[in-house]
Amino acid sequence: MNSRKLIILLVFVFALGNDAFSQDEFKFKDSKKRAVTLYFQSINNLIILSAKLNGKPINFLVDTGVNKTKVFGQVKDSVSLKNTEYLSLRSLGSSKPVKAYKTLNNYIDFGPIAGGNQEVYYITDDRFDLASKLGVNVQGIIGYEFLKQFIFRLNYVGNSLRVYQHQYFHRKLRGFNQIDLRLIRKKPHVKVAVKLLNTIIKDLIFLVDTGSSDAFWVFEEDGMFAPSNAFQDYVGYGLETAILGKRAKMESAQLGKYKLDEPKIAYIDSTSVKLFTANRYKNGIIGAQILKKFILFLDYKNQKLYLRPSSFFNDISNYDRSGLFLTYVGEKIKTIKTPVSVTVNQGNSYQVREEDSYFQIRVEISRILEVTNIRKNSPAAEVDIKVGDRILSLNGKSVNRMEPEEITNLLSSEEGKRIKVMLQRDDELLRRVFYLRSQLNEKGININ
């Protein structure tokens, strides 16, 4: 859980060639229905949908930035899976490849919508732990395979996904601005005209990424560099290290016919850009801090995005003013057995393993909040808070009784707000006090 806006960085490069497996499409259980509504939990503007995977409860992060469905778990008996086909993956922030077991014949059920014969990649690397970052139990990520089949109406105000079948969708969408989408490796991209503080005006290609809760990211390349007065910050999570970038504001961004004044922007350095692979992500990312300003219709089939302002359009999202970078840690974790079908390296066949080979996925998370990084020159950096300290309470309230969103809102609230921290360092209980302070002024300049 990040005390600012969380960004999920699960960028995979498959080490094997294309596979020929053809999975079923997601379908309405009642094929005659025009539309159904799925309600989601919003954590820092991220979309968390409850479902069942092979009959067992699971929470998926709905992420337009991924094309393969992934579940994070553990193998109960790795010996029994010795012949299972697996792929070697790379991910941002990883110094070594990650192993993922490819499984077939999975059934994913969202209630009124379900998909059979689904391909799911089980990632068993302990470093992949969304729950520790989000503060809620998220065991998987789903994107293209779910989104490609329907038209989705996304409303962050009502935390709802209205899902329409193409053959019954006759709505004219009057009042919505139509924007062309370009699918690059099954991920939606749009063109945005941006004006940066150094007077650079460019049309840039951005990934529309519901898996990022930040505003805009721009990759530093081809003359696109952060202004000298931007400040360095931890902008997201990699597997082993936090990802560094530079924070500022741009002068404006034009998304369709809508102009956004002074949106926040993070510049990602050229080294990290190479890990993103430029062909896949083009110039940058638009995250949910921008997307939430609109009611959106997303149509992969016709490659169209429709939007109009929501009641959040004029909201100013406060940036984290504490400097704390926090995650949940601990080992008191319960698991359940999830039966899956697995592809084995014997021709093109697959088989269902016996119960002793089932994967295990987490159903509860720890509520121990630990400091994993501290931003330089921030209020938290000035009062002897250290990486590894465990936060017990904030302003007199135990973190066990605080929702992740509540913690985020507290540490991003008005400038000058007093924050009292009770923390544990080894066996010692310590008290610290600091006052929230912005490192962004109205023009994106470092004011410390």
Structure commentary:
The protein has 448 residues and is mostly beta strands. The chain has 3 domains: 13-162 and 331-362, Acid Proteases (Cathepsin D, subunit A, domain 1, Beta Barrel); 173-309, Beta Barrel (Cathepsin D, subunit A, domain 1), CATH 2.40.70; 366-435, Pdz3 Domain. The protein is 7% helix and 44% strand. It is built from 6 helices and 37 strands. Strands 16, 17, 18, 19, 20, 21, 22, 23, 24 and 25 form a 10-stranded mixed beta sheet that branches.
Number of domains: 3
Tally of helical runs = 6
**Structural class estimated from helices and strands:** mainly beta
- Average pLDDT score: 80
Main beta sheet: 10 strands, mixed
CATH architecture of the largest domain: Beta Barrel
Q: What keywords describe this structure?
A:
globular, 448 residues, six-stranded mixed beta barrel, Cathepsin D, subunit A, domain 1, 6 helices, mainly beta, Pdz3 Domain, disordered C terminus, 7% helix, disordered N terminus
